[in-house]
Amino acid sequence: MSWNKSTTDCCLWDGVTCDELTGHVIGLDLSCGQLYGTFDANSSLFRLSYLQRLNLAYNDFNSSRIPYAFGSFANLTHLNLSYSRFSGTIPSKISFLSKLISLDISSSTDDSILEPHHFRMLLKNLTQVQELVLTGVNISSVLPDSLTNLSSLTNLDLRKTRLQGNIQNSIFHLPKLQKLILRGNRRSKRSLNFLDLSYTSFSKELPHSIGYLKSLNFLDLSSTRFSGELPHSIGYLKSLNILRLSYTSFSGELPHSIGYLKSLNSLDLSYTSLSGELPHSIGYLKSLNFLDLSYTSFSGELPHSIGYLKSLNSWISVLTSFSGELPHSIGNLKSLNVLILSRSIPKSIGNLTRITDLVLSDNAFTGLIPSTIDLSNNKIHGLVPKWVTGKASLTYLNLANNFLTSIERLPLGENLQTVDFHSNLLQGPLPIPPPSTSYFFISKNKLSGEIPSSICHAKILEILDLSHNNFSNAIPPCLGNFSQYLSILNLKSNAFEGVIPLTFGKYNKLRNLDLNGNQFEGPVPPSLSNCKYLELLDFGNNKINDTFPYWLGTLPELKVLVLRSNRFHGPIDSSKGKFSFSKLRIVDLSHNNFIGHLPRRYFKIFKAMKSKTMPNEKYMGTEYYQDSVAVAMKGIEIEMVSILTIFTTIDLSSNKFSGEIPDEIGALIALHVLNLSHNTLTGRIPSNLGDLANLESLDLSSNQLVGRIPNQLTSLTFLEVLNLSRNHLDGPIPKGKQFDTFENGSYAGNSGLCGLPLSKECGDNQRQVLPGAVCQQEDDSDFASGFTWKVVMMGYGCGMALGLFIGYLMFLTGRPKFLVRIVENEVREIAKRLKRTRYRQVGRRN
Fold first, then answer.
1. Is residue 291 part of a domain?
2. 444 located within any domain
3. What is the CATH number of the domain that holds 218?
4. How is this protein annotated for GO cellular component (predicted)?
5. pLDDT tens for residues 34-89?
6. Contact 152, 175 (CB under 8 A)
7. Structural domain of residue 258, as residue ranges?
8. 524, 548 contact by CB (below 8 A)
9. Under a CB-based contact definition with an 8 Å cutoff, are residues 430 and 453 in contact?
10. Which of 41, 319, 337, 750 has the highest local Cβ count within 10 Å?
């Protein structure tokens, strides 16, 4: 889109590089270019015969094959087709590119296949290649001897390629090899500096020759099957900076030669089977700044030399078998920031003034406790330690994502600002934070009972997240105005009941109010009109009984409005005043009792859904809190844990709306999802719905629509889900583009429709579809099953609109499973004929 055709000199276009003398195009970089669709084998791209560099990484070529014509670029030195959703067999002609210096055809899926003989040919012919990256390509072969031809190779990445057999000695004879990655496969010399064999199934003992890799600075053997003793030659790797041996089966003692690794910065021995005493030479590692000895079988006392590691800033030693007292020399480790121990602590630990993260479980320590404690994402069980809750000097406390079950009280004092206990197993009543607290997260626990009104003593709270607990009864009325700073109030997924008693003052700063998934009754609080900063309002899945709160249109920042599954009733009267909803991007009024015509005037004034220029792709929320919302897809609520600002949806399904579909909807060109199903809408499908260029899901099912399906809908190239079932549509089903991917279920219950994919012919101009043709279409069309989650991650990595949210698109990957219900006599006859011809449509049974 950035190419300006009015500029006749294409050498000035983004991504285009030309030869300064000849003017020939020699470089083309369209990586992350949002290119989409199948790759045409006759593309004019292949006329650029002077091309030397070509980068098409991170696009979406819709599972098309890599054309053979890529092998015709005789001058090509750099080719990058990574993560662009190519599939199928990689053509052998790629190996004809004898001038290649860099080749990257990585894939995040398992769809790209490099045949073993093509792999051997590739390694045989690319004698000048320096970088070869085949991550995720299905090779399913052993490393051939022709690998030794790649004398210029410096970087070889064969992660997740299904390599088989044993690692060959020839790989260590590549003279310039610096980086070798074989991670994730089921089965170096002198200049090799990076060796990652983690998560491989290479077994037996680690050879003594590992010590010959004198240039090695990174060695990762974690989660491998190597066994036996760690060879003494490990100490010869004098250039080694990082050594990872976690989750290995090495036995015996850690060799004394470990102390020779004077350049070592990081040593991870966690979850190993090494035993015996830790050698005194461990103290010689003067450059060491990270040491993990957790869950090991080392015994005896820790050597006094541990105090020599004066560069150490992170030390983890949990559930080890060390005996005796920790040496007093630990007090010399004045660079320590993180210390996690489970033994009695010497008084000299008081010298460690830089500690910011500290775990001292089962100790009687009375010395230094830092003001900031972050122990989130660990495996801490049981009661919150008293040495944490009893410290008045704390300012930040984060114990989220653990297995804590109870807490007697939160820390006291006037300093605590942030408390985060979300995602634990806490039970009992709500612990009340001190008045100094600004951020209080305690969601996703098992807390119960009422919310005490004393919570309102925290007068400066900005974020209060009590969601996903078992709280019940009414909420205290003070929650609406107890803090003039309150921005987030999340009470989602509890068992609160009664009317919503909240009263919001004129100068409040509320930005997110989420009461979804409770038992609230009564009307919507009128004082919400005072919330001028409100962006997200979610009252879904309650028992609220009210008419449509049209006055919410006065809120200038409102972007998300969810009222689904309540008892709202009456018409959506859009004639009362000038209420714009100008920034609204997500509106869900489904599963209520609204009646009357669809609100034309609102569709006219949904400005955010009409914008031709997309807003900057970012997530709704702040640095401390990401907004989330549940969106209905195919009748199931799916949690969007983060909301992209480019995502737009209208869901008015399962109400009692009548009349025609307004043409005004066709102007909402930024819309991604439109669901008007399960109403009593009449008339024809507006042809201008074909203008909704970004639409991905269209559901008009279970209405009383008549007439033909507009051919204009075939222009919706992003459309992945179409449901027009259970209406009174007639005529031929449009053909071409996305309509060739939709199946019978999209049109079920419309007796007047004909043409593919249905078996009913359209007059004499189209023969009945053959069973084999239908089955072939199902088997060969990856697109028919919808976008895969892997394509979404690619889009997200490049900032593409395709990465709207992971959970929604992962749901689309499942094919619909329902049987076309045959009602009229004519369709019964068709069914009989299909049965006689042994027609079977695969995978369409409930």
1. yes
2. no
3. 3.80.10.10
4. membrane
5. 888 888 888 889 999 999 999 999 999 988 889 988 988 999 999 999 999 988 88
6. no
7. 193-370
8. no
9. no
10. 750
